[in-house]
Amino acid sequence: MALNRNDIGTARVVRVTAADGATSELLLVGEPASRRWLYWLPAMGLPAKHYLPLAEALAARGIAVALHEWRGIGSSDRRAGRRRDWGYRTLLCNDLPVGLSAARAAWPGAAGYLGGHSLGGQLASVLAGLHPAQTAGLVLVASGAPYWRNFRLCWLIGAAYAVAPMLAGLFGHFPGRRIGFGGNEARGVIRDWARSGRSGRYAADGMGDLEAGMAAFAGPLLALRLRDDWLGPAASLEWLLGRLPRAGITREVLGPDELHGPADHFGWMKAPEPVAARITGWLASHR
Question: Of 19, 177, 179, 266, which is most buried with the most CB atoms under 10 A?
Fold first, then answer.
């Protein structure tokens, strides 16, 4: 599904192609007046265009933003199904590198940061561990590890990590749209995600353990938590940050007063100016 002009506003669209021929649209917003750009990874199942308000708020402050599109979602020409499957390895090793290369080509000489929301923040952290020399820093918003013990109603969360791969196997893909959680995800993505949820560790089929690289990342990191976010509680965020012991971590919490609305997992996206202001302030302190 291609984006139309009404969807993207002033964003530039770059069609990127992975080694296996899969294509998607990378949205480039703004110019790096501050000599910084942010490569943004969406939450599970969310199309890139949902983050245009955040990107535009950052661009107005001199931070250019590239919005990544997950394989199988939005403008991607692939859809998960019984005959088409992929996992974290494909996302990390095939899709993200070509998007990042396009962003570097668009903004040569500027420093590139990785950032993301929810699962996007997790995979940004993993990617920073895989490519530390190419990552100036990390920005996490409403993110955290999915480990079941870190949540209220942890028994229910733990059960979900057992059921989700079974559902994906039954349908040929995870039917996120039907059940109201995530998108229609590939079986491999759900296997890797559920494994982390059950074990508390990051690993991927075909890649093995991912935490050694995460532990070696020593760049600056901003972790923004939403006060009332039950999908990203403090314990979940701290578990993720614990996988990054050498990072220079700045922790901040945003509440409803500052956000002028709900301080939850998705509510901030409707009016992201406060989040953009926090990110910009943090970046300014790391010149």
Answer: 266
